[in-house]
Amino acid sequence: MTEYDIVVIGGGPAGLAAAVSAKRNGVDSILVLERDRELGGILNQCIHNGFGLHTFQEELTGPEYAQRFVERLKEEAITYRLNTMALRVSKEKEVTALNGEDGILEVRAKALILAMGCRERARGALRIPGYRPAGVYSAGTAQRLVNIEGRLPGRKAVILGSGDIGLIMARRMTLEGAKVQAVVELMPYSGGLRRNIVQCLDDFQIPLKLSHTVVRVEGKKRVEGVVIAQVDESRRPIPGTEEHYECDTLLLSCGLIPENELSKGMGIELSPVTAGPLVNERLETSRGGVFACGNVLHVHDLVDFVSEEAALAGKYAAQYVKGSRRQGASDEKESGVPLIAGEGVRYTVPSSICPKRMEGRQTVRFRVGAVYRDCCVSVYLNGRRILRKKRPIVTPGEMEEISLKKEELAAFPDLSGITVKIEEA
Ligand SMILES: Cc1cc2nc3c(=O)[nH]c(=O)nc-3n(C[C@H](O)[C@H](O)[C@H](O)COP(=O)(O)OP(=O)(O)OC[C@H]3O[C@@H](n4cnc5c(N)ncnc54)[C@H](O)[C@@H]3O)c2cc1C
Questions:
Q1: Which of 89, 274, 303, 304 to mutate to test the pocket of ligand 1 (most atoms within 8 A of CB)?
Q2: In terms of domains, do 167 and 137 share one?
Q3: Is residue 189 exposed (0-12), middle (13-18) or buried (19+ Cβ within 10 Å)?
Q4: 13 alpha carbon to ligand 1 midpoint, in Å?
Q5: Which of 100, 118, 391, 416 has its CA at 20 to 30 Å from residue 409's CA atom?
Q6: Are residues 85 and 157 in the same domain?
Q7: Beta strands 30-33 and 79-81, pairing class
Q8: Are residue 20 and residue 76 in the same domain, yes or no?
């Protein structure tokens, strides 16, 4: 069994930034495992621009953004293995992986960084009635077909789900000559970024049907059409509101789920809301020395925040390795104060903070459960409000963040809970 100080699983933007940061924080022995034939993760198929505005103050395409981190990885001479799928991780941080050259590969790590990204919710999980004809794709699969394989999945499409991938594929299919009949969204609001609704739907006059869903897929061999219907407040189709759309393709963009099989297999505690690991302020999971970042932790809207979060995971993993060398690999962790997702807030990352261990400032990221206008994001320590940030609008499609100061938390020596909630302005 080969030994490394840090093994990073996943060579997407999160894995790349984490590995580079770990190296720059003093750890030399690092291995990145990537199951795909190249580094860069999902960004390789995102050929639209809009990446890197925060990190590089430039508008880059996905592959351009990824390339900058691939170059950093190479400059730092970090070892990586492509076409290598991590299959299992033991509680002792032993990774079993598989590739065509070595067959089974076994590596032991002092610290692990989970950066496996996320996957799309498939048709089976959506329970759409109808036959199983060809022409039903997840939006990400269609994106790969169009942007990497050079194949157009169909000529006339309906898209179910208005998350960012669905919105971006509506524009992409249109630019490639297909007719996108409508984007259909179950919720009364879109799950995507505002800028994507404007640039991908409004600019191309593609209708967005909010509070609607697909109730029937027609066609036996190939999709021939879909029937959509309006839904009531409980998201049940309202009889009599059905509309028929002729199409040969149905794209599904109905949510992303963190790739959590390896995390589950290691017995890591997962959040029931995000399905990603619960982490403390050091992005360390319930298993000491195992860190998580990027979409495997919670689904991000902007890759810049993925890179920022992953750089921290790399730094903390490096500190763990250096500290555990001195202390004899202790997996003991100080307990943290729980972060409570209060009214309107679905979850927070991290889910606990140790005030003694935290740095001067701690960013807390979260998503809300509905659209709130003219509201405030408030933070309470032991029930006393310490922060109130006015927001004209917050929506589930856009990640929110607040920053907590160490001295604010230190002022509460008996701190038992930090609550983040949405309140009226
Ligand atoms: C369609 C789409 C459009 C987007 N548009 C924008 C945009 O305009 N601007 C923006 O800033 N952000 C955008 N994003 C968001 C951004 O691309 C993601 O947040 C980012 O790619 C997440 O990085 P990640 O490394 O966590 O995951 P990924 O990029 O998914 O990388 C995870 C990597 O892990 C590998 N992996 C998984 N499991 C294993 C395993 N068991 N063994 C080995 N390797 C494994 C995968 O092959 C993959 O390469 C978009 C995302 C999508 C999907």
A1: 303
A2: yes
A3: middle
A4: 7
A5: 391
A6: no
A7: parallel
A8: yes
CB of 105 shorter than 6 A to ligand 1:
no
Asked whether residue 341 falls in the same domain as residue 390, the answer is yes
Q: What integer pLDDT is reported at residue 333 of this predicted model?
A: 52
Give 31's strand partners: 7, 79
- Which residue, of 330, 359, 387, is where some domain finishes? 330
Largest CA distance in the chain: 70
Distance 253 CA to ligand 1 centre (A): 15
The stretches of 145-220 forming alpha helices (DSSP H) are: 164-175, 194-196
Domain that holds residue 348: 334-425
> What's the mean pLDDT when you consider all of the chain?
94
Report how many domains make up the chain.
Answer: 3
Give distance in angstroms: CA of 224 to centre of ligand 1: 32
More confident residue, 219 or 333: 219
31 Cβ neighbours under 8 A, 6+ residues apart: 2, 4, 6, 7, 8, 79, 80, 81, 107, 109
pLDDT tens column, 267-311? 999 999 999 999 999 999 999 999 999 999 999 989 999 999 999
Q: Is the CB of 295 under 6 A from ligand 1?
A: yes
422 or 334: which carries more pLDDT confidence? 422
Residue 127 Cα, ligand 1 centroid: separation in angstroms? 26
Inter-axis angle of helices 303-327 and 62-75, nearest 10:
20
Distance CA 57, CA 48 (A): 16
| pLDDT per residue as tens digits for the range 131-185 | 889 999 999 999 999 999 999 999 999 999 998 999 999 999 999 999 999 999 9
Indicate if the pLDDT at residue 335 is higher than 80.
Answer: no
Atom of ligand 1 nearest to the CA of 39: 49
> Which of 250, 257, 332 is closest to 296 using CA atoms?
257
